[in-house]
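Q: How would the structure tokens look for this protein?
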Amino acid sequence: MAVKEALYDHAALVHAGPSSLYGGCTGGVPNWFFIFWTPFMVFDTVLVLLVACKSFQHYHQVPNKQWFGARLVAVLARDSFVFFLVNLMIYLFNTMTWKLAPAGLSEMASFWWLAIPPISATRLLLNLRQVYTQDREIEIELLRSRNSRIRYLR
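A: Here is the predicted structure in token form.
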């Protein structure tokens, strides 16, 4: 029965747009739908401005720039800015695609929004962990060297 329906509907699938192949709505997309990405861009811009202000304040308040917290804030600010740029490019790409491209391409462009920001956020967390572990490894080496000196002095 299913094979019969698939063969019967084959002509409709060939002539239909890509949205029917993806299993979504086939009614079309309104012309104003590109505005959907604007709140995301505004929210991310506000967040990056807040991070920039706070990291700038913190950087000037800390006298020792090699302190663990200062290095952590520097990495957080750097990666937050990169995360913002990547997301902004994706949002602009999606906005332009929804505005200028055919409906099938705009649907395919939206999937980048689902994949790239989590990858960028994971990179941010991995870089923070790297700073944390490097600092702890230095402390462990210092403790080992102190313990070895104490043993040799006895």
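Residues 1-17 have pLDDT under 50 and may be disordered.

The chain has two domains: 1-29, 37-153.

Upvote if useful.
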